[in-house]
Amino acid sequence: MKFIHAADIHLDSPLNGLSAYPDAPAEQLRSATRDAFTLLVDRAIAEQVDFMVIAGDLYDGAWRDFNTGIYFAKQMGRLKRVGIHIYVVFGNHDAESEMTKKLELPDNVHAFSPNKPQTFRVDGLDVSLHGQSFKQRDVTTNLVTGYPAPTAGHFNIGVLHTALEGYQAHSYYAPCTVAELHAKGYDYWALGHVHEFQQWAGASTIVFPGNLQGRNVRELGRRGAVMVTVDEAGTVAVERIFIDVLRWEHLIVDASDCETLEDVVRKTGYQLESLLGTDGEIPRAARITIRERTKAHGALFGLELQLRQEVLAQIAAIGNERLWLEKIQIATKPMEDAAKLHERMDAFTDLQTIFEEASTDLEFIKELKDALAPFVGKAPFDLQPLVPLIEKIRTGDLKELIDDIAPGLLAHLAQAE
Fold first, then answer.
1. CA distance 312 to 141
2. Of 92, 258, 266, 288, which has the fewest Cβ atoms less than 10 A away?
């Protein structure tokens, strides 16, 4: 038999991080989660899978637009017409959703009860699926302990929305351990909630498929679901299927061999082009970080906005329909650290000393904050995310600001010399 296991669809969830920019692909951002789910249904039909499992967070919280639910019902109708059934556990985001409670779905969609664990048997196959939906958002008890014993003679699948163990980046919902899952005696655990792919082997095959479509720059790289194939001997094979329609990337540019801003721009352009060498038909939204010790450190000092415009020009040449810039960050270091500059450049000794004392001089920091406050007040709101120094001035974090600026300014002056 063959089935698809997906999770964390978050239908119609907005994609964040590009909307503030004029060149953002607004239409693709709005429809990305739907487009990815449509491709998943297309794949299920093309592969003639026996059934589909969705392990939670089909919807995206308190989203009240019933067009989302109507869209989902339409896709389920497509599967119904070819005889594919769907087994759904509702997760923490679904528990907040009005659609979860009120929308009637086609009869090929089987939703696990939130009141107690439930078992569905697949017609024509020796398969039992066991699961329990979330009754409310904050389910902090271990649901696994209440799941029933495996059905004798069947391939048993546990469907669970859980933080599992060790995933501190995700809310601590329905916690359990890998050992508890293995001990339950099921053949496969279809998990959801954690947005990164993960798989464990052992007494059970345990899988997080990851979310279907990356929604921001924290959800990087290829996204999708898994195709699970079980042979007559009960051997389980898990294949990742990638169906995201817009992909987030974090491009690290090593500027150690660059001497000028132009060198950095050219190298960034080359790496952006190579990014499209894999799955080139999938549009990318990229965050770029310029790193390492480099002779260009001084040349880049204070030029974040200019560098952004230069990189946008590189992207325009590659093609704005395939590539967009989310953010560019400068995290380079001077070729020589501040201590070596202090020793080598007598002309900058006094300036170096001033910087060292200034970062701990409370009276100076207060005067600096008062002097910079009018500038921050006049800065456009949409400029602040692009210039991290503005945020530091606004919050009064001037010690860190001084510590950040000193090496770059010294390197800039050294280069000018």
1. 49
2. 266
